[in-house]
Amino acid sequence: MHNEGSAIADATPATSVSPATRAGDHPETATEVAAAVRDGVADPEQIIEAALDRIRGGDPKINAFTVVRAERAVAEARAVAEHADLDALPLAGVPIAVKNNIDVAGEVTRGGSRAGGERPATADHPVVRRLRAAGAVVVGLTELCECGLFGTTDTPERITRSPWNIRYSAGGSSGGSAAAVAAGLIPVAHGNDGLGSVRIPAAACGVLGVKPGRGVVPAEVGLDSWGGMTENGVLATTVADAALTLSVLADQPALADLEPPTGLRVALAVGSPSRLIRVDEQWVRAAADAALTARSAGHTVQEVQLPYSGAALALALRWVGNAAREAAATAHPERLQRRTRTHASVGRAVLRAGLIRPSQVDRIESRLLDFFDLHDVVITPTLACPPPRAVAWHRRGWFRNMLTSVRFSPFTPLWNLVGWPALSIPMGLHPRTGTPVAAQLAGPPGSESTLLRLAAQLESEHPWQRTAPC
What we know:
The chain is an alpha/beta fold and 470 residues long. 38% of the residues lie in helices and 14% in strands. It is built from 16 helices and 13 strands.
């Protein structure tokens, strides 16, 4: 454990990223697009055609999309333009992508796997219905690893890459959504997060990733949303875009209000959740830099140690146990990847032994509630090191996949275990890999607005380049 204030005292800002954006074909933010459509100065069809052009030109480099809905998206854009009251559409004409593990009517929900059925979905998932009702246009579906189980995004069809350095993975499992947003192909995307699957790729790709708390947004991902661990969230290039989109998904317009918070009690926790996992110095500095920025905005900051005790075992048991349930529900379990079959096999043994107990989470949540009696927000590194290389991880062994996922992402899963909100915010670039570094902000139930408003303060004081360079 660090001495109080030591991480802040030792910190130097992570390699800074200019707020400048590319000229010419760089897409506008979702907030700007929607405002322009509502004001009648932008045509939804032209906006969607431009997004489709960007996808055609940029996606072959990063492999973010599994399906591009070109004809349907253009038709849906025309319908938005004919809407009787554009002022009622907070996301009017905004191109958005949906992770391919929730239903989009007319499309096959593959979940990164060949083991599912081939029937197109007959109805939209509630999240998709809310996006469409707000005027957003679904331009495509994005890639994920099989069943969203691992920390990289790759399938036999494609390896999804970070736009900042294509030699590195976009992270997982919402890697396709994060890469598409980071490359500037679309301004916002849907993702979901069961062990960090929004925040991990957001950090790897240098965008904002938000996982709301349990019950804030309709979940319905997999059999039972991984026992309440998985939530639908947002990936975006600005806090305003993330807040606006989350306000739609949650049906809570107030979440889009980013009035600066005052007098927050901010905890900085840079210590590793496990003695077996080393945290890269650049990721420690990213968190410390976020804390320094919060302090300069008038908040109090104290360096602490988070109460992680017991979380690693509880998470490991649920990681494999949930995989076993999902594998059993697939149409063709024999088609699952070897690493997935092994993961599910271990999970079946865990379930037979009755090793998953609610009391495991109850004890952890009780300690966290005591922690947040003293603090409003905690800042940690989002990841422990840069993302793995962009290779065919699905062909590698189960243990190697497990070890890799755990080593580079030990900070995110705790908040899924208890079902509390958390987000990842870009804080610079790693000098060795050229990939982004990021800080994670987390808080108790109901703190989504606080986290977003603090993130907006950090963005104002520590701006980042919205998308990766060409």
